[in-house]
Amino acid sequence: MRLFLIRHGKPDYGKDCLLPEGQKQAEMLAEKLAGQPFDAIYSSTCGRAYETALPTAESHGLSVTKLAFMREIGWGTPTAPYSSDYHPWERADAWAAEGKDLLTFDAYHTPYWQGTLLEESYRTVSEGFDAWFSEFGFVREGIGYRVTHTPPENIALFAHGGSGTCLLSHLTGIPLYYLFHTVKPSFTGITVIEFDSTPGVFTTPILRVLNDASHLPLDPPPSYSH
Fold first, then answer.
1. Secondary structure element (H or E) that encloses residue 145, with its range
2. Phi, psi values for residue 121, rounded to 5°
3. Are 128 and 70 in contact (CB under 8 A)?
4. Residue 201 has pLDDT above 90, yes or no
5. Which residues face 139 on adjacent strands?
6. What is the mean pLDDT of the chain?
7. First-to-last CA distance in the chain?
8. Tens of pLDDT along 122-160?
């Protein structure tokens, strides 16, 4: 089975919808995926993710099912959920500039993680995904999944830079802050994760494609304010 994890198009964050440019990106994405069969299409409950999914869903004759656990993450404190002091991409870049090895640095015992919305968000994404994924026959077991029954072949999940990075960390075991530093998801960037679908086997995810945005012109790097 292949999971297509896709970031939303360029948004108006305040209104939680796509800008005209983002809508065009979603349409270009749908053209790219026109020949790719999907069994089902999902999005987060945020408008910008749902609107990005719609052109692809319509071209495949499918509806979009919303998943609350894939909403975009918060990272600060309850009183300042998007504080720049806790901004995970900037924090990871700052640690790297200080010479910290983000593959071994214990970021999970710092004030930037413990008790913050990022810690809560990561748990929401990982636990929510595993509960949802078990419906397809993948039951979490250690670092991978035990396949209990034959799953669908291809599903698409439209989400966000933050929640998508949390999920990628959960699936691959790569430290979260290392991914915040090294992977900057493009608007409508496509990541493909493959799982062995044979009932009874133990499967660990294989990363087949990472942030493919070849359907878009080469633009300046996207914003990671949300």
1. strand 144-147
2. -65, -40
3. yes
4. yes
5. 146
6. 95
7. 30
8. 999 999 999 999 999 999 999 999 999 999 999 999 999
Closest CA to 28 of 221, 219, 168, 160: 219
Quick: pLDDT tens for 73-87: 999 998 999 999 999
Give the total residue count for the chain: 226
The CA distance from 73 to 63, in Å, is: 25
Q: 69-85 burial string, b = 16+ CB within 10 Å, else e?
A: bbbbbbbbeeeeeeeee
Both structure tokens of 111: 């004030």
CA angle 20, 209, 26 (to 5 degrees): 15
Phi, psi of 194 (to 5 degrees): -110, 140
User: Would you say 41 and 54 are in contact if contact means Cβ atoms under 8 Å apart?
Assistant: no
Torsion angle, alpha carbons of 51, 57, 59, 60, to 10: 170
Rg of the chain over all Cα atoms, to the nearest angstrom: 17
pLDDT at 220 over 80: no
CA distance 179 to 47: 25
